[in-house]
């Protein structure tokens, strides 16, 4: 039996963000065709350095010199799967952490097999929506692709079970994000529904998780910080945005200027926990 | 001899948009490298659900569970052509409609052959510019790639002929959009020249056509509604925009908040018909 | 010994921009996965016409009818390398100029070999950051991917040597851009640090270089005009932007409305030369 989720304190998010900006980690993003640009722009806005390299020889070479590797299976192909495997092995050999975003796992067979294969290769963290995490853990889910038809709370047992099973941090994100590691779970609230109307906010979060996971210190706390930084920027942007179009520039601006004051302000939705 | 184009009424566009938002169709987009993000964001802003899946096995599996399939040949490769064929056959077997965007057909030989091959596989609709539709119908055209050097009116006979020939809806879009099916043609005006200065507005329209074509009811009317929703959002956005950069967020915001009032307002350019 | 850099006059940038808008060159962009959209939008905002074609047969066919070809190796794969070679040969046979953006050359082995191979195929121009240009010229560099750890001034000898070696224009860009051809070098200042926080501004500049290189007149001057047009738009956008998110739409708007008045205004940073 795992412990109850504890609310993640804003002070820790602020500390981790400061560390990130000083370290400016180089994040090797092997991600899907749709979100390349927003992923890079989110990392740049936060002060990290993104790079996308996909040839299998180069991906392996690059993972070894990067701070962290992101593997996102959204638009998986045979050749990309080979490159991802090469990059994962190179990252592992070089002692660099890698993060999995299991996009649409459960809804599609081939990528589900591929993800079942690679989660044995010691990812530092997995970030997915409720349906994806339930599918990956072997529990039933009701996703129909990139959307999740389940709430993150419904997937919490699956996330906790998966975290124990493979020894990785598992973040199941939604209206509330739950980040599980071993017997511990912490919860991050915030964000805004507009984030679901802009493609790539979830995928970009996985890249941010990779950036934070490369930092020294407690990894569970660092992954939770990644989630909180994104949800806090989402709250700020939603106050300025007239819709999903104006949300995106406001979101990147918010990430760029995010500070401890905003991250430690009382989060009005924390009562939902 | 086909009938004269009739102006498409805004009330029908508003009804179809309401239906779309309730149904939230899942649109499988096999589209080109350049417009992945704007295509997804346009569908999300309208209330549809986009997903991009490109491996041939997964594309076939996904087409069968999607509401509609979009095939856009903008950055065609051998492996994508194979995946598109697999997805088209799966969509047909599952009774799901598919839509073709014949980007740059006529200007480039291989894709022209490929599109001539797949238009025999019963697309529900084809959406292209004047040059593309003229080339696809076998009539001469003067495109030099993704641009059209002909007006949509010049391509109207080609669109009507193609529609009869293959039994699909054919939408030739430009300053005025003509949507042809059997003996009927309707016309949609509106939009703004700034739309031609933002990459992907035409490609995204094809994805929106796929979303609307999945709805119950009259398909000619649904495709015209797709065209009108986009041209109306273009008008709204152009009033706020200072250029093509600020046009894009304003356009997505306009799609998100588009309502019957705007769609049924007198369209000042309807006199051009 | 090459001559000292001379400051590039704004009047020449304004003249070249006028020419570009009248000619509306068709630029065949073979570029990386991350920057497809911003590259196309930058070219459209300036009045050029972008097109991305990647199949090897089509790429060769298209290069022959385009005004210029861009080759950017950011997300190189085997099949894209083959297509790029086919396109370069077709461009050369048709007498069309091509431009190389050697993304991350030096940091990654395979693309470095590929770029060493293709710079023998008579590019009209090469545009890169300091690390890339130093690596391409055979001098030591300290890049760690897409970032440059060197200043453009430190790379000036490498750029001048490379320009003489291969008989092409070499632009090494950074806080100050140096454009070298034969014994001549000119310098372009301006821009803003926010440009480094938006993915693709450098890659898009290379596409703009391709557009300008297709114009008649002095090529060194045309490439410098490309650099100045982008740095001037960057200055304008940075005055309106609250961060990298709002910078991007403002930048495209600035490119769209850029005029001689702005381009010939005194550039406050020219004193740095």
UniProtKB/TrEMBL annotation, chains A, B, C:
Which Pfam families does the entry mention?
HK
Keyword annotations for this protein, in alphabetical order, are:
ATP-binding, Kinase, Magnesium, Metal-binding, Nucleotide-binding, Thiamine biosynthesis, Transferase
Task: Mention one GO biological process in which this protein takes part, according to its record.
Answer: thiamine salvage
Q: Which GO terms describe its molecular function?
A: ATP binding; hydroxyethylthiazole kinase activity; magnesium ion binding
Query: Which pathway is this protein engaged in?
Result: Cofactor biosynthesis; thiamine diphosphate biosynthesis; 4-methyl-5-(2-phosphoethyl)-thiazole from 5-(2-hydroxyethyl)-4-methylthiazole: step 1/1
Instruction: Extract the InterPro entries matched here.
Output: Hyethyz_kinase, Ribokinase-like
Q: Which reaction does it catalyse?
A: 5-(2-hydroxyethyl)-4-methylthiazole + ATP = 4-methyl-5-(2-phosphooxyethyl)-thiazole + ADP + H(+)
The protein's matches in CDD domains, at most eight in alphabetical order, are given as: THZ_kinase (cd01170)
Residues annotated to bind substrate = 52, 200
List of residues binding ATP = 127, 173
| CC cofactor | Mg(2+)
Q: What is its EC number?
A: 2.7.1.50
Job of this protein: Catalyzes the phosphorylation of the hydroxyl group of 4-methyl-5-beta-hydroxyethylthiazole (THZ).
The record's annotation in NCBIfam families points to:
PRK09355.1, thiM
Q: Which family does it belong to?
A: Belongs to the Thz kinase family.
Q: What is this protein called?
A: Hydroxyethylthiazole kinase
């Amino acid at each position: 039996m795992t412990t109850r989720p504890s609310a993640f304190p804003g002070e820790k998010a602020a500390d981790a963000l400061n560390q990130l900006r000083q370290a400016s980690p180089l994040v090797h993003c092997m991600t899907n065709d749709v979100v390349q640009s927003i992923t890079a722009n989110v990392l740049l806005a936060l002060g990290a350095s993104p790079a996308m390299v996909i040839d299998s020889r180069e991906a392996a070479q690059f993972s070894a010199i990067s701070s962290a590797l992101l593997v996102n299976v959204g638009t998986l192909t045979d050749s990309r799967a080979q490159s991802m495997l090469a990059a994962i092995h190179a990252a592992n050999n070089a002692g660099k952490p890698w993060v999995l975003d299991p996009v649409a796992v459960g809804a599609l067979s081939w990528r589900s097999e591929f993800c079942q294969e690679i989660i044995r290769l010691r990812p530092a963290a997995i970030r997915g929506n409720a349906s994806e995490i339930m599918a990956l853990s072997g529990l039933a889910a009701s996703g129909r692709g990139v959307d999740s038809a389940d709430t993150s709370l419904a997937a919490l047992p699956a996330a906790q079970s998966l975290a124990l099973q493979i020894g990785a941090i598992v973040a199941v994100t939604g209206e509330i994000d739950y980040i599980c590691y071993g017997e511990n779970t912490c919860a991050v609230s915030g964000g805004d529904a507009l984030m679901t109307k802009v493609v790539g906010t979830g995928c970009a979060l996985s890249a941010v998780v990779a950036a934070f996971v490369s930092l020294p210190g407690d990894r569970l706390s660092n992954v939770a910080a990644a989630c909180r930084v994104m949800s806090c920027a989402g709250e700020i942007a939603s106050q300025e945005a007239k819709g999903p179009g104006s949300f995106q520039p406001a979101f990147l601006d918010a990430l760029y200027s995010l500070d401890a004051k905003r991250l430690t302000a009382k989060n009005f939705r924390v009562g939902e926990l």
